[in-house]
TrEMBL record:
The gene is hcp. Hybrid [4Fe-2O-2S] cluster binds at H235, E259, C303, C389, C417, C442, E476, K478. Keywords: 4Fe-4S, Cytoplasm, Iron, Iron-sulfur, Metal-binding, Oxidoreductase. SUPFAM superfamilies: Prismane protein-like. Catalyzes the reduction of hydroxylamine to form NH(3) and H(2)O. PANTHER family: HYDROXYLAMINE REDUCTASE (PTHR30109). Gene3D superfamilies: 1.20.1270.20, 3.40.50.2030. It catalyses: A + NH4(+) + H2O = hydroxylamine + AH2 + H(+). This is Hydroxylamine reductase. [4Fe-4S] cluster binds at C5, C8, C17, C23.
Length: 533
């Protein structure tokens, strides 16, 4: 077996990619990522025994995020991260003064890439734990940490952090190396990970709202405007803001793609008149949409796919996302991208459909009285949260069908890139309340939780007793940590699809069903019937 990775929903054959990643991850990159995670655990053994160190904590977040699906495909870059990881391990060892005798603590990477790959092949997930249920729960924890690192990275870019959360990252990474811990210890760490992630999502929510103002319902055009253009895809709002500032007055229009769509709802971003439209759909549509976008294109986070030659020369990456041979912008100077956009052909004037975004918790709770009155009057019978990741595999039409077939007296809350399955359909409104409310990115899951908690408060019941059902789609590890957060809040009856994670064993699934009544999706008709009776 040249590699093994099962961390995302498109794991080959529903078990794991073992020849090459369906996502495009090559065996050398898989081995280097496994090596980097091993190195992070080595750092954590010491970092868990000392006070906070800003450099070590920041690196831990960036390195974990680099291993999330569709982020960093560049072996050279991951090799550099491994070397930095070793330097920080030595720093932590000296600072902690701890004497730890175990192979993980003794880790030292080879100096060259081939040597680091060979070492990484010894550190895959199947090499570390024999009991498959324990391994399954440790994987859930590791993928939860990866997902949480993504949200923490965005918060840190906006100057936020949290010492208790950072201490948990180190504690949990170190715990995965402890042979004395058992299944329920790791279940407890998974629940704690979900809880810590709520803190991170609140940090990020506050950072977004304080920096750019609370999102307000905003109509977004899906067409193009005459002139030069740059397409921004990913999740990072600060990067978009910097690009908007640097393109002011240059005759370049900025377009959002994928998870950048909700950026249009923020007052601090929509004030730029050259943030003109949303172009295309979810991440997995990039291969067919980017060739048709004549301007420059930049990724600021996941999800990148192998770029075609037809647009590779006008494609850029920023932040942690990297692809070999694609120009990476380090720092905050986007002049190379701007110059490329000025050289590229213009887009035509071609106005398109208008859709709504910007229903963050402040906007929705601002009309809470109206929503509660509509529920009490029987005009709104049920809420569905149909949210999560989109993906390339078949079986995701379920979410389109579910939204289409949801009765007219129901409201659909949505978030993340899965909404592209239905966000261009016409749903109408209930007494002025749109039936489809786009809460935002996966990064805005906190908003959905706030809305659910506020509704529960208004109806004097628990979230599980609300007329609210969660129909979630997952793809990568950010969805894993959101699921852990929902479970840590005691939320039950979640329907999950399009398929269940390959890293969950039958025993672990039985535990989740018994304690949380997690269900796999079936068909839209059957699930609607089961929910609405
Ligand atoms: Fe396969 Fe997903 Fe891992 Fe890529 S991230 S190698 S598609 S399981
Ligand atoms: Fe999407 Fe990658 Fe998860 Fe942010 S962009 S939700 S899949």
């Amino acid at each position: 077996m040249s590699m093994f990775c099962n961390q995302c929903e498109q794991a080959a054959n529903g078990t794991g990619c073992n020849i090459s990643g369906v996502c495009g991850k090559k065996p050398d990159v898989a081995a280097l990522q496994d090596h980097l995670l091993y190195g992070l655990k080595s750092v954590a053994l010491y970092a868990d025994k000392m006070g906070r160190d800003a450099e070590i904590d920041r690196f831990t977040i960036e390195a974990l995020f680099s291993t999330v699906t569709n982020v960093d495909f560049d072996p050279e870059d991951i090799g550099k991260l491994i070397q930095k990881c070793y330097r920080l391990k030595e720093k932590a060892k000296a600072a902690s003064g701890a004497a730890i005798a175990c192979p993980v603590a003794d880790w030292k990477p080879a100096a060259d890439l081939a040597g680091m790959v060979a070492q990484g092949e010894q550190h895959g997930i199947n090499t570390q734990h024999i009991n498959e249920d324990i391994r399954s729960v440790i994987e859930i924890l590791m993928y939860g940490l990866k997902g949480m690192s993504a949200y923490m990275d965005h918060a840190m870019i906006l100057g936020r952090s949290d010492d208790a959360v950072m201490a948990f990252f180190q504690k949990a990474l170190a715990a995965t190396t402890d042979p004395a811990l058992g299944l329920m210890d790791f279940v407890g760490l998974c629940m704690e990970c979900g809880k810590q992630n709520l803190t991170v999502m609140a940090l990020l929510d506050t950072a977004h709202n304080e920096t750019y103002g609370a999102p307000t319902p905003t109509s977004v055009n899906l067409g193009t405007k005459a002139g030069k253009g740059i397409l921004v895809t990913g999740h990072d709002l600060k990067m978009l803001e910097e690009l908007l500032k640097q393109t002011e007055g240059k005759g370049i229009n900025i377009y959002t793609h994928g998870e950048m769509l909700p950026a249009h709802g923020y007052p601090g971003l929509k004030k730029y008149p050259h943030l003109v439209a949303n172009y295309g759909g979810a991440w997995q549509d990039q291969a067919k949409e980017f060739p048709n976008f004549p301007g420059a294109i930049i990724f600021n986070t996941n999800c990148i796919q192998r770029p075609a030659d037809s647009y590779k020369d006008r494609l850029y990456t920023w932040g942690l996302v990297q692809w070999p041979g694609v120009t990476h912008i380090s720092g905050w100077d986007f002049s190379e991208v701007i110059n490329k956009a000025l050289e590229c052909p213009s887009l035509p004037e071609n106005p398109g459909q208008e859709i709504l975004t910007g229903f963050g918790h402040k906007a929705v709770l601002g009309v809470a009285d109206k929503v509660i009155a509509a529920v009490k009057a029987g005009q709104i019978k049920h809420f569905f949260l149909v949210g999560g990741c989109d993906g390339a595999k078949s079986g995701r039409n379920y979410y389109t069908e579910f939204a289409e077939k949801a009765p007219q007296d129901t409201v659909i809350l949505t978030l993340a890139c899965g909404k592209y399955r239905f966000n261009k359909l016409e749903f109408g409104d209930i007494g002025g309340i749109p039936r489809l409310l786009d809460i935002g990115q996966c990064n805005d899951a906190y908003s959905a939780i706030q809305i659910a908690v506020a509704l529960a408060g208004a109806f004097e019941c628990g979230v599980n007793d609300l007329p609210l059902s969660m129909i979630l789609s997952w793809y990568e590890q950010k969805a894993v940590v959101i699921l852990l957060t929902l479970l840590s809040l005691g939320i039950k009856d979640i329907r999950l699809g399009p398929s269940l994670p390959a890293f969950i064993t039958p025993n672990v699934l039985a535990f989740l069903v018994e304690n949380f009544n997690i269900m796999p999706i079936t068909t839209a008709e059957e699930d609607l019937k089961a929910i609405l009776g």
